[in-house]
Prior knowledge:
Layout (H helix, E strand, L loop, with lengths): L1 E7 L7 E7 L6 E11 L1 H7 L10 E2 L3 E9 L11 E4 L9 H4 L7 H7 L11 E2 L5 E4 L9 E5 L3 E3 L6 H4 L2 H16 L7 E4 L3 H12 L5 E5 L2 H10 L3 E4 L6 H8 L4 E6 L4 H9 L1 E9 L21 E4 L7 H13 L9 E5 L4 H10 L4 E5 L2 H4 L5
Parallel strand pairs: 4-8, 11-12, 11-14, 12-13, 14-15, 15-16, 17-18
Antiparallel strand pairs: 1-2, 1-4, 2-7, 3-5, 3-9, 3-18, 5-6, 6-10, 7-8
Helix pairs in contact: 1-11, 5-6, 5-10
Bound molecules: zinc ion (2 copies).
Amino acid sequence: MRIRAAVLHEPGRPVEIEEVELDPPKSNEVLVRVAAAGVCHSDVRYADGDLGPGHCPMVMGHEGAGVVESVGESVTHVAPGDHVAFCFVPACRACRYCLAGKPNLCEIVAEHGARGMLMDGTSRLRLLDGTTLQHGLRTACFAERTVIAAGGAVPIPAELPLWQAALLGCGVVTGIGAVRNVARVQPGDSVAVFGCGGVGLQVIAGARLAGADPIIAVDRVPEKLELARVQGATHAVNAAGEDRPVSAIRRLTEGGVDYAFEVIGRPETIRLAWGAIRPGGTTVVVGLVPEGVEATVPAIEFLSDKSLRGTYYGSGDPAAEIPGLAALALAGDLDLAGVVTHVDGLDGVEAALDRLRRGEGARTVLLVDAELAGRPLS
Length: 378
Ligand SMILES: [Zn+2]
Ligand SMILES: [Zn+2]
């Protein structure tokens, strides 16, 4: 079938909205009508070519939600009409990482996904001239419809508006997972969060849910620091102002926080987040750093039990965690609407990427089908 989709033809060139060809789902795959999709800073990394060569042409988009339209053979966990959030790591459940309880690192996903293919190593997407298109992070949801691996379609309650559910599959899983599964923040632990964009705000929400205190938000944009306070930050440090963020954090916590989260993806801010932790503390790097960039810390400080940790996609079992996160949102414990600073149509991809490049606003949600998404475009 023909669908409209956002295609990245070449890094550094604007994303084109055009008609492409989508094949029906094969065995263990699902066709979803996309309602809404969030634009994430990782999309900027792809669009700007920061993740190395070999990702084009690609239909972009890895965070979104929609309604199942049809299912391939042997799919039993969802049926047409079900509301789903996308999970961009549809773990195989059989490789050594999956069996070791680390499905976020699934080898089959890594093997085929790095080439933009689905779990059988092939694509369902073509340009109208027949050129094979890659599926952006196995999801390709900046499009009217998408075919994804069955494991990437996670059922969610129909009461949760899809324009909010769209955020679950990247920003929410990644941010809250970093707090729960990596740092394992306990009540009363002190936390600092560098970068209050779409993912950083979810780290703050996760820290609030874990009972952290204080929760110190660091950003250069006053508007984002305001959003951080709404999500649960107890203190806000404007890194663009007089206040040097590390000394401000050390002053507020008498020597540093237990956990610092870097949610920007720059060596300079990783260094700041390292400086902000106390002896025995941990810095968790959530931000996606461009390929080839190195980060350094003063290594003598490892002697004070300080740790530097990485994380991918929440470092847990994303598909298993998404329903619980949806339930938190429905119960009012997670404010998804509050992190959405802009809505636009599918045509708004490039404008949203530009806002992220300028560091402006938090999440843009593309209302691919505004009615289905449950929110008017205006
Ligand atoms: Zn993302
Ligand atoms: Zn696996």
